[in-house]
TrEMBL record:
This is N-acetyl-ornithine/N-acetyl-lysine deacetylase. Residues 135-157 are annotated as: Disordered. It comes from mine drainage metagenome. Gene3D superfamilies: Zn peptidases (3.40.630.10).
Length: 157
């Protein structure tokens, strides 16, 4: 949880405080569960929600993760899986499209959305190579092993 805004007001008789927070939910939880757990008794703090974006998590062995890892290796890197508690475009569309996905991008993930965030041009160029390889692998997957049942006979083949 991160406080992103704080405002106080007072008119002599009443005082109020407005706090804006950014609450990142772990995968597997839903915003509705969190909202139901908040107290709603009279006299308790009131709250409102501006934006609700549900958490999403990639299957660690899914096709998109495998393709991105192949792209990273092909570009000379070493894939590192990172469980990120942020949002990406996939958070917005994943539950609607119901398709595999993953978040990927160049730069130091520790610096994401901070004043120190930056991406060197060489990292940006490498990410283009990574994505090109990943997209090619997703567009042209290797053939699946033949899993069709074979007839069983007692005759030699």
């Amino acid at each position: 949880m991160k406080v992103i805004g704080l405002e106080t007001r007072g008119d002599g008789d009443r005082e109020s405080v407005r706090v804006r927070i950014d609450l990142r939910l772990p995968p597997g939880s839903r915003s509705a569960e969190i909202l139901r757990a908040l107290p709603r008794d009279p006299g308790r703090p009131r709250f409102s929600v501006s934006v609700r974006i549900e958490p999403i998590e990639a299957a660690r062995d899914g096709p998109v993760v495998r393709a991105l890892e192949a792209g990273i290796r092909a570009a000379g890197g070493r894939p590192t899986r990172w469980r990120k508690s942020g949002t990406s475009d996939w958070n917005l569309v994943g539950s609607v499209w119901r398709t595999a996905g993953a978040a990927y991008g160049p730069g130091d993930p520790h610096l994401d959305h901070t004043a120190s965030e930056s991406v060197p041009v060489r990292d940006l160029a490498r990410s283009v190579r990574v994505l090109r390889t990943a997209f090619d692998q997703l567009a042209h997957p290797p053939p699946a092993p033949d899993a069709s049942p074979r007839p069983v006979t007692d005759r030699p083949t």
